[in-house]
Amino acid sequence: MDINNSVALVTGANRGLGRAFAQRLLERGARKVYATARRPETVDLAGVDVLPLDITDPASVKAAAEAAPDVSLLINNAGISTGTDLVTGSLDAVRHELETNMFGHLGMIREFAPALARNDGGAIVNVLSAMSWFGGKGAYAYHLTKAAAWAMTNGVRLELAEQGTLVTAVHLGLADTDMAAGWPVAKLAPSDLADAALDGVEAGSAEVLADQWSRDVKSRLPLAPEEFNAAMGRALAALTAA
């Protein structure tokens, strides 16, 4: 699809990657951009149509779909990381991450799929992570949720193919956002991530590996688990030592 003249809705558009998506959509000629956030008063980008949205609240998701029936491009960006491990961490925190990072995205897709079908199929972008494929101390819950979201994305892509909806999975390592503020390493600019994702949509791509880190991680997936874990340990050590 063509970004120019599209009607897009971006979740979590008040900061970070979501704000960058909304801004680049406007700059690339989108006819309308719905910028959504749990606290809509925090959206500070001129030229967007602001909507309140909590992706973990089905009533809020339904209200957003009713307010934006003309959407042709859905950007599922909103997400959280609670810094929780699976065995020793809070199970409530694990569930909260799953409700946001996987079920929240799925709920948006289910609610907006009819509108996309009416608008020539359109497209969905699910912002995932290189951590769809690996975890680390303090982030195993995040890994779980992104792995689940990856599987969900692959499933809905096949289910929505009949109505002509493109579903693009976007994976990245670290972007220069609040979530990655504690990592003193080189990070992807949010605008570059947005452009890579939107270029992928225009090219009809099912998957976008937005940086070298995500490409390197995926290339290791054929390894045996022990080899994969050892390779990722070395890669993480090199990253933090750089």
Automatic annotation (TrEMBL):
Keywords: Oxidoreductase. SUPFAM superfamilies: NAD(P)-binding Rossmann-fold domains (SSF51735). InterPro entries: NAD(P)-bd_dom_sf (IPR036291), SDR_fam (IPR002347). Belongs to the short-chain dehydrogenases/reductases (SDR) family. This is SDR family oxidoreductase. It comes from Streptomyces iakyrus.
